[in-house]
Design brief:
alpha+beta, Aldehyde Oxidoreductase, domain 4, about 25% helix, globular, binds dioxothiomolybdenum(VI) ion
């Protein structure tokens, strides 16, 4: 298709000025008349049952309107997602579970009253520690998103046993927390049986659907808005308790209610990336051709709902091997419920696979870039389909050229050891059906309406670019309306699929509008001419091709042999993700993902407290997200791909792949620098020093 200058251009974010001047409104910033504040009371036992509640002292705090408990809270219909069955019974499935909700005139009064609620529990034994060979380990019926839990090609065990060169290693990743800058927050109000909610969400359509179910309302009596969202990273990909509790409290009190979770509540309430144990067995010929690849994953889930991190699946995408197996196991523990976190499964599984590949390169005495190139498949190994496009080799070569590879020997600078590492990345192409409208106005402008969510990615900007391109009009003639469930129905910002899904519908609406306008003579009517598009049946149709984005990550680290501290000096990523639709916001997504991967490699990790049953880190002083001083020179580049099997824009997703190869690239660089192979993330100074001492 012919392209205008709009698509691919580094267009600035349309809401940038509002954000930097502080006028952009977030979910908790809707001071409706009479608005009051809610505060959740978390369970302070790891498992058990509530036997008594004394809310008297809490209700006596000045400004308190009510305290909701399982005894007086509005009854909800049974939700699909049991983490939303809030204040419905006396069971405590895990520490931090919401057991009461205080509503007060001010956030301060709500906080004081929440601390004053007296609760007694009948406690039960709990088990929260994921161990290899845990007696409750089992293979689940299905993994996240209905994906298969296992795959088998050939005879992997025998091929591995017979392989001349073998690696058999286990990698571990800890629980991780998303911690978006804006905490989960919702403001709800009821007006004559209509519910309106401002919420911090990756998809208001899903929030509306879930609220309609819980409160037994038709969807057209509910409006959910998320005009601006301060990050989500997956944790806002499904409705979280804040929106349900705010709606319950607003219904009960008849007042608009805001619930903004304090940072300390997030770890147990909104989900976490589940910990993984990944055993990798790689068998190869002496010249570095894989003959067997086996990836066994064990992860945990909560008693509330089954959530199985699919960390093995990418091992069926990457490398040619006649004998392949991946399988997932899960251990139900009394932990808070895990949920989505940016590149869920890909980040953890590829850390293991790409580290093991580095170990195999070491065993073979081969360059790790060469090893990957030598095992380039011509079809997707797991599914057998041809790739719609695959430029991993080009990413590796281009990255090697830009970064400086083949690498030399490690260097020393005083007490510092300097090394470099490489890892590959992949992320699947996902796309969902979507609707959108396009309207031509008599003043020569266009209005695009679609319930997309901009969670900080620049969605409204890139959708305007897609529309301008399809209409052949300058970008400033296009207005977009997003972030409101009353707009044409659209899927969530998740699975790196938002732009592809929404953009497809926008593109189609614009193409139809042009057709309609071509048949129109005379001035446009006052109300404009509008058309609607719906990509159902096409966006969700199966493909004749395996569709994935690929990338290559390179890292340089300095390891302090005195303190054990690892500093990343350089990170470089090269991606092949179809057409890049906005070079500025895309670069920001890649660099953001790599920063998150850097955190996963070096500083981020939540510790399950065996005695208490939840996470030891509940604030940003103890959960170490990389700060500016931790983040070095990061470069993101891409190879523009022409892939006809995707969508009208020819784009793959870019939101998550930046995380995927980064932790292994950093870990492999630490190995190159020190000779020590650490197999547990994060690579904190204590672990690094221990490994150096053992050597
Ligand atoms: Mo993302 S973890 O697909 O919201």
């Amino acid at each position: 298709m012919a392209r205008t200058a709009a698509l691919g251009a580094p267009a600035e974010r349309r809401e940038g000025l509002e954000k930097v001047t502080g006028t952009a409104r977030y979910a908790a910033e809707h001071p409706l008349p009479g608005r009051v504040h809610a505060r959740a009371v978390p369970a302070c036992v790891a498992r058990g049952r509530i036997t008594g509640m004394d809310t008297g002292p809490a209700r006596a705090v000045p400004g308190v309107l009510t305290v909701l408990t399982h005894e007086n809270a509005p009854r909800l219909a049974e939700p699909e997602d049991a983490t939303l069955a809030l204040l419905q019974d006396s069971e405590v499935p895990h520490r931090g579970w919401c057991v009461a909700l205080v509503v007060a005139e001010t956030p301060e009064a709500a906080r004081a009253a929440a601390a004053a609620v007296r609760i007694t529990y009948d406690t039960a034994d709990h088990d929260v520690v994921l161990t290899p060979g845990h007696p409750s380990t089992h293979e689940p019926e299905e993994a996240n998103g209905g994906q298969p839990t296992r795959c088998r090609r050939g005879d992997p065990e025998s091929a591995f046993a017979a392989a001349p060169v073998r690696v058999d290693v286990t990698y571990r990743t800890p629980p991780l927390h998303n911690h978006p800058m804006e905490p989960h927050a919702s403001t709800a109000h009821w007006d004559r049986g209509r519910l309106t909610v401002h919420t911090s969400s990756q998809g208001t359509g899903d929030v509306r659907r879930v609220l309609a179910g819980l409160f037994a309302l038709p969807v057209d009596r509910i409006t959910v808005r998320a005009e601006h969202v301060g990050g989500g990273f997956g944790s806002k990909g499904s409705p979280r308790p804040d929106v349900v509790l705010a709606a319950m409290a607003a219904r009960y009190t008849g007042r608009p209610v805001t619930l903004a979770y304090p940072r300390r509540h997030l770890p147990t309430v909104v989900g976490h990336r589940a910990p993984t144990l990944s055993r990798l067995r790689l068998g190869a010929t002496a010249d570095g051709r894989l003959t067997a690849l086996l990836h066994d994953v064990t992860t945990h889930t909560s008693p509330v709902r089954s959530f199985v991190e699919v960390a093995g699946t990418t091992s069926g995408v990457m490398y040619a091997t006649p004998n392949l197996s991946f399988v997932h196991h899960v251990v139900p523990l009394d932990v808070p419920s895990p949920s989505w976190m940016r590149a869920p499964g890909e980040a953890t599984g590829m850390y293991a696979l790409e580290s093991a590949m580095d170990e195999l390169a070491g065993e073979l005495g081969m360059d790790p870039v060469e090893l990957r190139i030598r095992n380039e498949p011509d079809r997707e190994p797991a599914g057998g389909l041809p790739f719609s496009s695959r430029h991993l080799v080009e990413c590796l070569r281009e990255g090697a050229r830009r970064f400086g590879w083949p690498r030399g020997a490690r260097r020393a600078e005083g007490p510092l050891l300097i090394g470099t590492g490489v890892a590959a990345a992949t992320y699947p192409v996902m796309v969902s059906p979507c609707t959108a409208t396009a309207e031509a106005r008599p003043d020569g402008t266009y209005l695009i309406r679609v319930n997309a969510s901009d969670i900080g990615t620049g969605a409204r900007t890139v959708l305007a670019q897609i529309a301008a391109d399809a209409l052949g009009t300058p970008l400033d003639r296009v207005r977009t309306e997003i972030g409101d469930s009353d707009l044409p129905e659209a899927p969530v910002a998740g699975g790196s699929s938002g732009t592809a899904s929404w953009g497809w519908a926008v593109h189609e609406a614009c193409a139809r509008l042009l057709d309609r306008l071509a048949g129109h003579t005379g001035p446009l009517p006052e109300r404009g001419i509008g058309v609607r598009a719906d990509t159902s049946g096409r966006a969700d149709a199966g493909s004749t091709h395996a569709r994935h984005a690929f990338g290559a990550h390179f890292a340089e680290v300095a390891v302090d042999t005195v303190t054990g501290e690892v500093r990343v000096r350089r990170l470089l990523g090269v991606y092949a993700a179809g057409h890049i639709l906005n070079s500025r916001t895309a670069r920001s997504q890649f660099v953001g993902g790599m920063t998150m991967g850097l955190g996963m490699a070096l500083t981020e990790g939540s510790t399950v407290d065996a005695a208490f049953g939840d996470f030891a880190e509940a604030d940003l002083a103890s959960y170490h997200i990389p700060v500016h001083a931790d983040v070095p020179d990061i470069e993101a580049h891409w190879i523009d791909e022409d892939d006809p099997y995707l969508n009208p824009m020819g784009s793959k997703g870019i939101g998550e792949i930046g995380v995927v190869g980064t932790p292994a690239a950093i870990g492999n660089a630490v190995h190159h620098a020190t000779g020590a192979r650490l197999r547990t993330l994060p690579l904190t100074p204590d672990r690094v020093l221990t490994a150096l001492t053992e050597r």
